[in-house]
Amino acid sequence: MKDAGDAARYLSEHSAARRDLIRMGASYSDEEAIFHLIEGLPETGTWPSFHLFLQSSCTIATAAPTGTSVSSAPKTSASTAHSSISMALSMSSVTFESVSVKIAAEAHRLVQQLSFSSVGSEYANAATSPVGPPNVNPATGLRKTRNNPSGTYCDTPIGEGLVCGASNHDKAHCFKPGGGMAGQRPSW
Predict the structure, then answer these.
(1) What is the pLDDT of residues 110-133, one digit of tens each?
(2) Looking at the record, which segments are called Disordered (predicted)?
(3) Does residue 136 share a domain with residue 114?
(4) Secondary structure element (H or E) that encloses residue 34, with its range
(5) Which whole number is the average pLDDT over 35-60?
(6) Pseudo-torsion of CA 37, 42, 45, 46, nearest 10°?
(7) How many angstroms separate the CA atoms of 94 and 167, rounded?
(8) What is the distance between the alpha carbons of residues 65 and 112, in angstroms, rounded to a whole number?
(9) Do 110 and 40 share a structural domain?
(10) What does each C-alpha distance from 156 to 136, 165, 185 come to in angstroms?
(11) Looking at 125, 144, 162, which one is the last position of a domain?
């Protein structure tokens, strides 16, 4: 398996190969199939940890009914790892299908995690998020400024049902008659 996106192909090929071997009459046990499935996991990212999790869950499943742990013997090669997995699986309820489901679920989790955050997004969010309160009124879409702290259109009446309607200030900062700063307009 190359990565999490390749999990469906990987699992279907293993399942098809296992089914074909059994149909041909080869002695291919569930333990051997699970061993080959686990050993083919990628060696990058979180997969090595997941590999150990699968091995330890097989060991725990075995230790529960028998009261002993299979993992007490040191593993020095693939053959001893295969024999410990084989012994663990032969006495437990772990099946090829249950391990396949766990691998598919982990691959799905990793694919979802990658789709939510792209490379470098942890920096992009930090660089673009405002430090203080948001400076745009979500209802009007207007930017909040010192002359328009609420981010609303000026509603100072200017006669016959008309209002100022400016977006750069609110009624409290309007220089027109009836506004909050009426008569205080600078004489530039």
Answers:
(1) 888 776 666 666 565 555 555 555
(2) 127-149
(3) no
(4) helix 30-39
(5) 84
(6) 10
(7) 67
(8) 36
(9) yes
(10) 21, 8, 15
(11) 125
Q: In Å, how far from its chain's centre is CA 64?
A: 33
Q: With the C-alpha atoms ordered 152, 157, 159, 164, is the resulting torsion angle positive or negative?
A: negative
Read off φ and ψ for residue 74, nearest 5 degrees.
-70, 140
Q: For residue 5, give both structure tokens.
A: 């996106």
Same domain, 14 and 91: yes
Please compute Rg for the chain using Cα positions.
Answer: 33
d(CA 129, CA 116): 17
The whole domain housing 150 covers 132-188
Exposure b/e, 73-111, CB count within 10 A at least 16 = b = eeeeeeeeebbbbbbbbebbebebeebbebbeebbeebe
Confidence bin at 20 (pLDDT 50/70/90): very high
Instruction: Please give the single-letter amino acid code of residue 185.
Output: R
Beta pairing, strands 157-159 & 162-163: antiparallel
